[in-house]
Specification:
heterodimer; A: 139 residues; alpha+beta; Alpha-Beta Plaits; B: 434 residues; mainly alpha; 69% helix
Chain lengths: 139, 434
């Protein structure tokens, strides 16, 4: 088993469509998809992000970080939310992504999430991170 | 569409794609087919034929746009062929043919474009179909091994190859087991439906014990070189989660889910670098999976709040929760563990529970009263043949300083133990005695 993150990427086009769509309808279709993930026993976590125009971007190109308000630069695809699922294979993660009620124009990127066990266990920072995970019940 | 040698062997990519779809959809596909045909064995057969065809066709043509629709349409056509062969042009055939004509007859296997909301099944029936499938696969007319194989294949969507690998048996053994199971179900005239209300509780107990059996085989392998088979244990957890979502008011379903989650939480610490078992007292508790513990405690909470008291799985989960919440063996609430084992012994008396109670008593009070419980088990000749009894007795005798007897018990335990890893630990313990 491995954890995969389904990373939702919206475009201006898909975000505009989302804004037009009925909120109740969206809740209904997303809710049904979430319910399927729950029933299949694969959902670990899921979060969606607020409007990109409400975001802040910190740019590290210069010597000191430059902070600007608003969405992330010229990028056409904006990170909008994620699902974390625990599945048997990358193919299964892809199958779930295909079932997502996504708005046309948007995309989903699928990436494996390495576990902390894959890092050197004698590294003091990994040890500290483990301790934090233990205290807080993190994934 | 008929598989043929000319198509060549299925590609790896196609096999993985078919397996992925099958894991997600098998229960719904077999469930829907079983309801349409009223014949579980036929449904399972044609679903497997569709999977075999998919391996060939998807290798050749790539995966279809709507893999689920493809599988379901192909399986339905195989079902119709089968009815034709049987010359059973009865109502069931008419119903199937009608459903096929509605959307799929013109476009071959291609079904309507795929979105979860227009999948070709009735959302109100899916839950009942999957539940019915679980009840049939775990039916008491079947042998325990057959129930496990059938559940993993038709509900869990594992291939025979995956099941064979998980249980370290040859693929034909699993195939034969499933074929026999389907014949048994057909011969016994087991209907594809939810059990009647008066049998529901008992039959649910049967389903839970199959899931727990799968879990324990994954968490304490009875054969082979590896102590744990986490993927198999995970299949049981996945099925338990599905069952919990389908039956949200059954405390024991949540009890079982909690027990599995809390036990699996210890997996990362249960084996050492070379795969050798690490005892509870020696485990690095920082390696326990905290999110699994959190899920397990939540499921246990749900089981408790549903009322009717905790059943056997819920009580075992409560014991696992005592360990999960304790910073060390010494700081474990052993008094509570003893009480929970006493309660467990009342609702589900068994020599294994007695043996575990003895271990808890040894921790809470000391080895002498624990040895009395174990000796009572020996005297009544329960658990004879199990390596666990001499293993625990050997531990207690070691703590009491009765070295010679302890050595004999540990060596006996090693002879009886089927797991290579555990056997070597027992032998090491015996050798370490002064």
């Amino acid at each position: 088993m491995a954890k995969y993150m389904l990373i939702m990427r919206g475009t201006d086009e898909s975000n505009a469509k989302m804004a037009e769509a009925s909120f109740d309808e969206m809740l209904e279709t997303m809710g049904q998809f979430n319910e399927e993930l729950i029933r299949a026993g694969v959902l670990v976590a899921a979060e969606g992000l607020d409007d990109p125009s409400q975001g802040v971007v910190v740019d590290y190109s210069g010597e000191t970080p430059v902070v600007t308000d608003g969405p992330y630069g010229e990028t056409k695809e904006l990170f909008g939310g994620f699902y974390l699922i625990d599945v048997a294979s990358k193919e299964e993660a892809v199958e779930w992504a295909k079932r997502m009620p996504a708005v046309s124009g948007s995309k989903c990127e699928i990436r494996r999430v390495p576990t902390i066990d894959e890092f050197p266990q004698d590294n003091e920072w990994i040890i500290k991170e483990r301790a934090w995970r233990e205290r807080t019940g993190q994934l | 569409m008929t598989p043929s040698v000319a198509d060549g062997p299925p590609s790896d990519a196609a096999r993985r794609a078919v397996e992925a779809v099958w894991r997600i959809e098998s229960a719904r596909i077999v469930g829907a087919l079983a309801r349409y045909t009223g014949d579980f064995a036929l449904a399972e057969d044609v679903a497997q034929e569709a999977v075999a065809e998919a391996l060939v066709a998807w290798s050749r043509d790539g995966a279809p746009a709507n893999p689920v629709g493809w599988l379901l349409a192909t399986a339905r056509r195989r079902a119709i062929d089968s009815f034709r062969r049987r010359s059973a042009l009865d109502e069931r055939y008419a119903a199937l043919a009608g459903q096929l004509a509605e959307g799929e007859a013109t476009s071959g296997a291609a079904a309507p474009a795929g979105r979860p909301d227009d999948l070709p099944w009735d959302p109100d029936r899916v839950d009942d179909d999957i539940l019915a499938l679980m009840f049939v696969a775990c039916h008491p007319v079947l042998s325990p091994e057959a129930r496990v194989a059938l559940t993993l294949r038709s509900v869990g969507g594992l291939t025979s190859e995956e099941i064979a690998r998980a249980f370290l048996v040859p693929v034909p053994t699993i195939q034969a087991r499933i074929t026999r199971a389907k014949k048994t179900i057909a011969a016994a005239g087991v209907p594809f439906e939810l059990p009647p209300a008066e049998q529901r509780r008992e039959r649910l107990g049967g389903v839970l014990s199959v899931l727990y059996g799968i879990f324990t085989e994954g968490s304490a392998a009875t054969a082979g070189a590896d102590l744990l088979r986490p993927d198999l244990a995970y299949e049981a957890i996945r099925l338990a989660r599905t069952l919990a979502a389908l039956l949200p008011d059954e405390p024991e379903v949540y009890g079982l889910l909690a027990l599995c989650e809390l036990t699996a939480a210890r997996f990362p610490a249960r084996t050492g670098p070379d795969g050798e078992p690490v005892l509870l007292e020696d485990q690095d508790r920082r390696r326990w999976d905290r999110s699994a513990i959190r899920r397990g405690l939540a499921a246990l909470g749900r089981a408790s709040t549903l009322g009717r008291g905790l059943g056997p799985y819920g009580l075992q989960a409560a014991i696992a929760a005592c360990h999960a919440s304790a910073p060390s063996v010494g700081e474990t609430d052993w008094e509570r563990v003893v009480l929970l084992y006493e309660a467990l012994g009342r609702v589900a008396p068994s020599p294994i529970v007695e043996l575990n109670r003895a271990v808890a008593v040894a921790m809470a009070t000391g080895p002498q009263p624990a040895l009395s419980i174990v000796d009572e088990l020996v005297a009544t000749d329960r658990l004879s043949g199990s390596y666990l009894l001499p293993s625990v007795r050997g531990e207690l005798l070691t703590r009491l300083g009765r070295t010679a007897e302890a050595r004999a018990e540990l060596e006996l335990a090693a002879r009886l133990c089927g797991n290579a890893r555990e056997r070597s630990v027992l032998l090491r313990k015996a050798a370490a005695l002064p």
